Model the fold of this input.
Amino acid sequence: MSPGKLVAGGTALAALPLALSLSTAVQAQEYEMAIATLIPENLTNNSIYPALVHFKELVESRTDGEVAVSIFGSGQLGSEVETGSQVQSGGRALQSTILTSGAMSSFYGDYQVVTAPFLFNNWRQAWAFFDGEWFANFMKGTVEAADMRYLGTFDDGGGFVAFTNNERLIKTVDDLEGLNIRTEENPAHVATMRALGASATPLPWGELITALETGLADGQFNAPVINTTYGLDEVTDYTTLTGHVYNSASWVVSEAWYQALPEEYQRAITESAREAIALSHGASAALATASWQKSCELFEECYIMPAEERNKMAEIARPAWKEWIVGEYGMDAQLVDDMLAEVESLGESLPNEAYQRYGQ
Done:
């Protein structure tokens, strides 16, 4: 055998482990799970991205790397509706996305039911509802409506919102009288504002600052973390934490892609998603609390509306919202009543349960 053949043979043998390694790597990542979100890829300024990173670590560990998770933040893969459409189409290029309430409603119309004003009194009640059996069964409708499977609900910006405006500090429902409030382009929010005595100007996010600067709108409402992060204190003077809207973000995955997974990987994904959601809840509340404290430093005046006044506002806003969602939107009245009953039941049982366990 000539030296040349020995070299050639040696090269081939040397390359064999690399080829086997590459083949093994491909086999070890048999399933790709790409997740899209508008949230920045930042571990400290939001609660969703850290939760997704934790989910990635859990899934890849529990599947020995055979499900490879990739996270694309900051809207890299398009708008929520665009990424939702990709997931809906079968998960060939994109398997999962995060949809805030407006976008979720465009794929699953019944989701509008959670736009009810003053729906929750506190985070525990909200989390118990979104993580509970009633809501999980309700969200099974996404499979038939949009070929998406629901994995869980994140708190969008901390959930509860706060008013900001240029005219006066809102302490009672009477203080809303005559104010022109910018809302999202969501008829439920418009109906709520009008019922409370304000006028509503629906505008996209990109026009908000200009509207406040020019007087087209007197005020707006968003989660405190949004109000501080985007400098709403520079264009409005007063802020009141009312929590009249609870913003949520639904985490969905392609049903076709999910059903193609072995059951053990399906279990890894659903179990890991539950832990990621729990992590996100705590981080969300912490960020919201810190942002509210920051609001009180940045705005001229801040105020937390007491429960008694919130209840008065709810008694005014809820009937108007229900009239809109049943009469105009076409929501089944029984579904609305069932949801409100579930939320009310949790509002009663959770404090009793806490006292029974820890107070007696």
